[in-house]
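(Structure overview)
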Amino acid sequence: MFLVLDVGCGERPRGDVNCDIMVQKAPNFVLCDAHHLPFRDNAFEKVVSYYVIEHCIDIIRYLNEVYRVAKKYVVIMTDNSLWYVDLINLFLGRGARFNYEGHYCIFFPDVLERLLRKLNYNVTVKAGNFGMEAEHMKKREKLIKGIFGWLVFATIKIVSFLNRKASHTLYSPLYRDILVIIRKKV
């Protein structure tokens, strides 16, 4: 039995079985669409899918498919559209850190968490610097936090005071990625 399926593996496969909509040089590669996975129910202990959900036309179908083929849990990572570096760059007229072309959806941690809970998924959503460029981001973040950190933290404190509810989502602009862990109900 294979343990890990990487859906949308791209050029950096991480699974025992790897699949993508475009042909990749990856071990145990399967050419398929994430909306229609050609695997039986509960075929893999874990399903991982990094930076794929934002490219899906039908995210509900995608979520149902990755959930269906997972036996224990699903790990999804996507871009945090509230990341403060993007917000500052957009404000200064420099544009975002990457091109959103090919993205059908953008995500905010609290909105994504509410969507998944409405779909009755047992879910944990975290904002953080988890992605492939995490080490590079940490170095750059020190400089940016030094320059803009006081402004960002002050804004967050004011917003949290005005909203009167401290939530992990209030701190999400500090982080680049959104990590979603969906556990299967036993």
The CA atoms of residues 73 and 183 lie 4 Å apart. DSSP finds four helices and seven strands in the chain. The chain has one domain: 4-183.
